[in-house]
Amino acid sequence: MDVSEEGPRYRVRSEEDGREAAHRPSAPEREHASRAGLSSARVSTLGRGEPTLAEQDHKSLRDEFDEAVNMTVAELENWLKSEESQEVGDTKGHEESTGHHSGREIVRIKRTRVDDLNDADYRHMRKVIGYVHRHLAQRPKGDVHNTPWRYSLMNWGHDPLKR
Fold this sequence. Notes:
Number of domains: 2
Shape: elongated
Strand content: 5-15%
Strand order of the largest sheet: 1-2-3
Largest sheet: 3 strands, antiparallel
Order of helices and strands: EEEHHHHHHH
């Protein structure tokens, strides 16, 4: 690694022909690394066998998603077939509620190999995490066992009564 007034520069070697070239992380890469608490030296690890920043972000997102979605695929599929599941949530003029559609997407994502996940899948994971966190913070008082609040969360793959 060389450091100059312009910032760090990394030497990377092509696996195809062995030639070396300099790589300077782009401004978005440097800014993203800074926000993620990583030194700019971690932004580009080409040829070093270490995960890239995007791979680290995706792994972190999958971990958060797995924490937020505490229902198994089978539990979620069975729940989505229930009358209660189909009666809650905002339909925004569609036949299916947003949460019910999300539940079907969660099942698909959970069945997809990690290497086959795409940007839309990671965006949906982020959306699920946000929804679950927001709605857990709005827990109603009293018994929530048979409430629209719980049923809505379950459509998004999270059963607040599950331990």
